[in-house]
Amino acid sequence: MAQIIEDAIKVQASDIFLMPKREGYLLSYRQIEGLREKERLSLKQGKELINFFKYAAQMDISEHRRPQVGAMTYSFEDAEYYLRFSSLGDFDDQESLVIRVIYKVNQSQYFLPDQLAELKELAKRRGLIISSGPTGSGKTTTMYELAKQIGQGKVVMTIEDPVEIHESSFLQAQVNNEAGIDYVSLLKAALRHRPDILIIGEIRDQGTARLAVDAALSGHLVFATFHAKSTLQTISRLEGLGITNDELANCLTAVSYQRLISSRQGLSCLLDVASKEILQKSISAKTRADFVSWQANLEELRKRGEIDDAAYLDFQAG
């Protein structure tokens, strides 16, 4: 087990896949370049490995059909990595397992640290700050980094499904659908705890969006993640969840889009931030662009030698 995780970390894989095939299991890593096959295993080896991982993540090893989630922290080379597990049985009663590797991204691993400083300054205005991007782009890490920087002496509460990063200075609550504890009920309870900063793991439906907006309109600082294909199209997705333009104009402080990109220093994060006049104009516009300065920043990184031509071309569309 350790070797599989450590090999994934060495190549900066975002996910580890154990997928059943007709005659065995396929172990693969998802890297920046795409899915890479690591090893083929027998059915016996694959099942034993899945059970071992599930046991380590405190999942039910006797249950192979129903979806399960789990989590654990892994230490390697003086660093901690957060692992999130998801298991699922297929139509043939063969179980699959996916392990998300969550990397800590400190301030030195942002291509343009001024962008993080900009979000920190914007957070003083309170309201709703959304971090968007695809799965595995480091959105939660960015929210936590901002909350830690500005949350000294304040109550910071998180609502997540599941908790991805354990932070002792935060009050962290986790969704448990089997016990009837969903995002909406946790959010309602969280607001009664009077947090100074509220982190919502993901806006995923109309109910979550509504409570996030209402919390921001009532004067809270709310950080939330959202799956969107670009910075400004995040606004359109919120509209699709029933949030009006007037509400967005009054509660939305900033929207950022981010990706983790291979650089000469390893894996680094590039942000695209919309705020103030640009954000307000985009909210009221009938048609919207995708980005604020994404392509220009990519071009600058290529000129400086921070990224190569392949990375520049791969991330042009975000």
Automatic annotation (TrEMBL):
PANTHER family: COMG OPERON PROTEIN 1 (PTHR30258:SF2), TYPE II SECRETION SYSTEM PROTEIN GSPE-RELATED (PTHR30258)
InterPro entries: ATPase_ComGA, P-loop_NTPase, T2SS/T4SS_dom
Organism in which the protein naturally occurs: Lactobacillus kalixensis DSM 16043
Stated name of the protein: Competence protein
Bacterial type II secretion system protein E domain segment(s): 191-205
Family stated for the protein in its record: Belongs to the GSP E family.
Assigned GO CC terms: plasma membrane
UniProt cross-references to PROSITE patterns, sorted A to Z: T2SP_E (PS00662)
Lineage: Bacteria, Bacillati, Bacillota, Bacilli, Lactobacillales
GO molecular function: ATP binding; ATP hydrolysis activity
Keyword field contains ATP-binding: yes
Keyword terms of this UniProt record: ATP-binding, Nucleotide-binding
